[in-house]
Every structure is written in C-alpha cells, then in structure tokens.
Amino acid sequence: MSLLLSDLTVTFPDGAERRRVLDGLDLAVAPGEAVALTGPSGSGKSTVLAVAGLLRRPDGGRVRIAGQEATDLSDPARDALRARSVGLVFQQARLLAALTTREQLELVARLRGERGSGLARSRRRADGLLAELDLTAEAGKRPHQLSGGQQQRVAVARALMADPQVLLVDEPTSALDPARAGAMFELLVRVAHEHRMATLVVTHDERSLGLLDRVVSMCEGRLVPASGATVQGRGSASAVEHPPGRPDVLGHQ
Ligand SMILES: Nc1ncnc2c1ncn2[C@@H]1O[C@H](COP(=O)(O)OP(=O)(O)OP(=O)(O)O)[C@@H](O)[C@H]1O
Description:
Elements: E1 3-14, E2 17-29, E3 34-38, H1 45-52, E4 60-65, E5 68-69, H2 75-85, E6 86-89, H3 101-111, H4 116-132, H5 148-160, E7 166-170, H6 178-194, E8 198-202, E9 214-219, E10 222-224
Parallel strand pairs: 3-8, 3-9, 6-7, 7-8
Antiparallel strand pairs: 1-2, 1-4, 4-5, 9-10
Helix pairs in contact: 3-4, 3-5, 5-6
The chain binds adenosine-5'-triphosphate (ATP).
Adenosine-5'-triphosphate binds next to helix 1.
C-alpha cells in the first residue's frame, strides 16, 4: 500500500477536556487507486488529509507513506518524506500570482535546490506534465489569465512535479461548474492510474463519485456505508471502507 493509515486517533481541546474526533481509523489506498473521501461538513475529512499529508501528527496510530513508517520521524524527516512522496492539491489552487504556469512547476525544482542537469531534467518533466494536463498553451500565462479549472490543473501538475507516490486532494471542484468538475475528477483518476499514485480526494461532489475507483463515506466522524450501496466505484475493491467493530471519528488540524 502506498498510503496506510492504521488505528489513528486525533483529539482536540474541548473546554477542560479533549474531544476524540478520530478514533481508530483504518484506511489503505493502493498504488494507482483513486479513492473519494466524502461526508458532511465537520465529519473529519480534512483531518484525514492533514494526517495522511504529514501536516498533523495523530495522537495515536500509524501513518505509512510509500512503505515508510512516518509516525515516529522527526519533523525534518517528515518534511523530507512529504516533499519526496506526497503531492498536495488544495481547495484553492494557491498559485503564486507573479509566476507563469511553467514557473509554478519549475519553482518546485528550484526549492529543492536543483541546478544544472537536475534542473534541466525537471524542466523537461514540467513540459511533459503541461502537455499531459493540456496546459501547454497556458505555459506562459499567469494565474489571473487562467480559468478556475485551468488553475486547478496547474495545481495538479505542480503536485506531480516530485513524482509522488501519494496524491492528496481537498475539494478540487468547489469553484468549478459541473462540466469542469467532472473533467477534473476524470483527470485525477487518469493521473492516479498513469502515475500509479495512491490518490485520496476529499469531495462533497456526489455527482462525480462514480468516476472514482472507490468511495469512503464519513458521518459525524465515523465511516459509514454508502447510502443504499449505490455509490460504487469503477474498481474491484469494495465501495466503502468499514472496519468491523470499530467506528472512526476524525478531527481537523
Ligand atoms: N483546530 C481545531 N480545534 C478543535 N476542533 C477542531 C479543529 N479543527 C477541526 N475541529 C473539529 O474537528 C471536526 C472535524 O473537522 P474537519 O475539518 O476535519 O471536518 P471536514 O469533514 O473536513 O469538514 P468540511 O467538509 O466542512 O471541511 C469538526 O467537528 C471540527 O469542528
């Protein structure tokens, strides 16, 4: 498994006590599998992404990324593992206003300190990703010259620059119309399959769930069966993660 969350617990302060908002969560995403994480507001989806993306340490449990145990690593080692193995795409594309599309991608290599042949290799990768995500014509444009869907595609391309084994995506379609939302889900599934990335997509967008390989549903911090088992992904795995005998409650960073 490229992403393995085992027996995760997260608590938040609640008055004099701590509220347990994640309690024994188990979730595994295989290489090349695109999984939707859905559920009502406040059910804990963002907390799952924060823990999986090594942005929040859980109170208990294990996080394994690309075969490496992350839980007990020092902060610098976690940062390095994240930079090496995890791609993050947020609700807003979070592009830098002054940079062109190509420069947004090249910045990833520059921040890694690449020079010379390494930087040249990364530039070729950037050009390849721009072509793959149908952004070549946008390579010289700045964010304000791009549509919302194009901006999100740039954010995905940027996340792929490090060739991550895990891709975590938070509400990628909240600013998009239905047609563009569908295209964005199709793109995420395609890149998950082609780049063999374990891909976890937080979404409220029920219309697009069928495009994903598998759907994990949450309610009030627990994993629940998809309503009427109608939400079936395209993959052969079961539609819902539902570890027997142990509810899953999640919390936010
Ligand atoms: N920093 C925090 N301190 C205390 N409680 C928090 C904190 N962050 C989140 N929570 C609580 O944890 C629970 C889960 O929040 P989370 O943001 O993970 O849910 P979500 O499903 O992603 O919600 P949404 O769909 O609205 O983004 C919520 O009850 C929230 O109020």
